[in-house]
Specification:
CATH topology of the largest domain: TIM Barrel
Helix content: 55-70%
Structural class: alpha/beta
Number of strands: 17
Radius of gyration: 36 Å
CATH superfamily of the largest domain: EAL domain
Strand content: 5-15%
Distance between the termini: 98 Å
Length: 667
């Protein structure tokens, strides 16, 4: 009997020790998981902040450094996630971790792509990707990490309760066994008292430790939850929480009630960032946030949406009150002076406003309208507000351009662009009489309709699509010409238009160099047309790129010459071969003596500088006769020839040729 009691006593003691060890292991595991999740959350949050900083930065060296940091945080996130995946996972953990893995794979590439676009200077394209996918995707990742922490918290409470119960039961059993042995041996009495007290002390210490860890975990969930919904710089709610508030407001919108939403964009913020650095920019954002807060009612929502952009939700607010609030914010910001290291800056704010009523309760529509209204405020002169109205022609134009931006991407993917060409003819007997052509782009709708570039080029310029379009035009035109060598014999050159972004983009320059290195001998048949505005915007870069390409045999024409303010001054420094006289002077040359004098003056100065002239918009024989009298070298226009498909022109010209074939090797 005594032996059995001793064995039971020892067994009970071992159970207490096992429970103790189990509690210690659970605590260590929870601490490790919590550290890994915190690392993941911190890395994801820092990536979002770096993307915002990249969006506000233009210095290429700083952008490169920020991009390096972006990669470092990505690696840290992946390392922590892999380590967490290797640990024993409880119920629900595997599902959330799988969702997290899918979210990272879905949104991670968009963040990297946005960073690359910012480095390339394609800011508007990067902006669309940032705020439509990259940043919102990061919010999904942060939300999933928060969900996992909540799951750990629930599991932790259950574990604590189970361990507490096990400890208490083990302790009772142990004391009961000790009591059974009381009359058997004083030795066992002493043993029982000693062991019981020692284990009870250890048990109490373990429970206290578990309670402390649970409280720490509670505090860290609260902390991460606040980080997930608030902007770390200004303390305002962030874009994700702003959108949640707006969606909830739209869902519970009641008939007859009106609300107003603002989208605010700071004017001149970039000057502070560029001249004083990011610390100054961050301090400016904090001070601007403090300036706007007094104009908010208790029920209003003020948020930082990213970069220098803010959002406001005015619930149950009449339009006239909202307009007063907007104007007050504009005046307060406008009167504010930001001082940094002896420098003083004045900033402004442009506000887009949308009234939410029975007719407007769709979230995507609201966000699109306030964005368009804000841009309209900027276009109207900045430092003002613009109220969205369905009848607003300016906003309708902007919406149309946004639609075109999407259509252009699809057209490029689906290969629905086509090349046309219009003849450029020599009227100067002293130069070659061989025909020349200007390559023109057209877009083909899905139904086969040919769409003029006037319909989509302004959208392409605004949304940074021109480099991709120019790249397609150049590559397609060159490959077509190289494949039709008989056509090349008959012409002097074909001109291809280049946009301002393409002219000054170093990657595009490399593309052109590689292309004509592959098509050796073809460079002499190509003339790139650039606008005067494009050349003037970045004169040094433009001149450098033009000089490099001319050294390969390529020619350049300055299009729309005469429309600029200092045309002749810039002409002296630009290494170009042809001047295309702006059509606004040519069109009325017969009836307007001033236009005729302008054309004559441009031609004479071009001749002195050994450059040939091309007159555009030659639409009648009378205009053609005037240009011949002046001595212009080339003419182009409907009187000379209408634009038509390049494939047809090549086919006709090739049939007329019986000359020796010129050989151009393929790529």
């Amino acid at each position: 009997m005594m032996l059995a009691s001793v064995l039971l006593l020892i067994d009970s003691y071992q159970n207490v020790k096992f429970t103790h060890a189990q509690a210690r292991d659970v605590i260590k595991q929870q601490q490790a998981k919590h550290r890994l999740l915190t690392r993941m959350y911190s890395a994801a949050s820092e990536r979002s902040l770096l993307l915002h900083r990249m969006y506000a930065e233009e210095d290429p060296f700083v952008l490169d450094d920020l991009n390096q940091g972006l990669g470092a945080y990505a690696r840290d996130f992946i390392k922590a996630r892999l380590e967490l995946s290797s640990m024993p996972l409880g119920e629900g953990e595997e599902d959330i971790l799988l969702e997290l893995y899918e979210a990272v794979n879905t949104y991670g590439p968009s963040q990297n792509q946005a960073a690359e676009l910012l480095i390339e200077g394609r800011r508007e394209q990067a902006e669309l990707l940032l705020f439509e996918k990259a940043i919102s995707g990061q919010a999904v990742v942060l939300s999933l990490i928060s969900d996992m922490l909540e799951l750990y918290e629930k599991n932790s409470l259950v574990t604590v309760a189970d361990m507490d119960k096990s400890f208490q039961q083990a302790g009772k059993n142990y004391q009961m066994l000790g009591a059974d042995l009381l009359g058997t041996s004083a030795l066992f009495i002493l043993f029982t008292i000693y062991i019981s007290r020692r284990e009870r002390t250890r048990l109490q210490a373990m429970l206290a430790e578990q309670k402390r860890i649970s409280e720490q975990l509670d505090h860290s969930t609260e902390k991460l939850s606040h980080q997930a919904t608030h902007d770390s710089l200004t303390g305002l709610i962030n874009r994700r929480e702003f959108e949640n508030h707006l969606k909830q407001l739209l869902q519970r919108s009641e008939e007859g009630n009106t609300h107003v939403v603002f989208y605010l964009d700071l004017d001149q913020f970039k000057i502070v960032n560029d001249s004083c650095g990011h610390y100054a920019g961050d301090e400016l954002l904090r001070e601007i946030s403090a300036i706007m807060q007094p104009y908010m009612r208790e029920s209003d929502v003020l948020a930082r949406l990213g970069g220098d952009e803010f959002g406001v939700i005015l619930e149950y607010c009449e339009l006239n009150l909202a307009e007063n609030i907007a104007q007050s914010i504009i005046e307060a910001v406008n009167s504010f002076r930001f001082r940094w290291e002896g420098k003083t800056f004045r900033v402004g704010v442009s506000i887009g406003m949308v009234q939410i009523n029975d007719a407007l309760i769709n979230f995507d529509d609201v966000m699109m309208h306030i964005d368009s209204a804000c841009y309209a405020a900027k276009d109207a002169g900045r430092n003002r507000y613009h109220l969205y109205l369905e009848s607003d022609k300016e906003l309708a134009r902007r919406r149309s351009e946004m639609d075109w931006a999407v259509r252009l991407d699809r057209a490029l993917e689906e290969k629905r662009f086509v090349l046309y060409a219009q003849p450029i003819v020599s009227i100067n007997k002293q130069i070659s009489s061989r025909p020349n052509y200007e390559i023109l782009i057209r877009m083909q709708s899905k139904e086969g309709e040919i769409i003029s570039p006037d319909a989509f080029l302004s959208a392409a310029e605004r949304y940074n699509k021109m480099i991709n379009i120019d790249r397609w035009v150049v590559e397609e035109a060159v490959s077509r010409l190289a494949a039709n060598q008989q056509f090349l014999q008959q012409i002097d050159y074909c001109s291809i238009n280049l946009s301002c972004p393409s002219l000054t983009d170093t990657d595009f320059l490399d593309f052109i160099i590689d292309l004509f290195s592959a098509y050796k001998g073809l460079a002499g048949k190509i003339c790139f047309e650039i606008t005067e505005t494009a050349a003037i915007i970045n004169m040094l870069q433009a001149s450098r790129h033009i000089a490099i390409l001319r050294s390969m045999g390529l020619r350049f024409a300055l299009d729309d010459f005469g429309s600029g303010l200092s045309s002749f001054e810039y002409l002296k420094t630009l290494p170009i071969d042809y001047l295309k006289i702006d059509g606004m002077f040519v069109r009325d040359i017969v009836t307007d003596p001033i236009d005729r004098a302008m054309v004559k003056s441009i031609h004479e100065i071009a001749s002195v500088m050994d450059k040939k002239t091309v007159a555009e918009y030659v639409e009648s024989s009378a205009i053609l006769d005037e240009l011949k009298a002046i001595g212009v070298d080339y003419v182009q226009g409907y009187e000379i020839g209408m634009p038509s498909p390049l494939s047809g022109i090549i086919g006709v010209q090739s049939k007329q040729s019986s000359s020796k074939v010129i050989s151009f090797p393929g790529k």
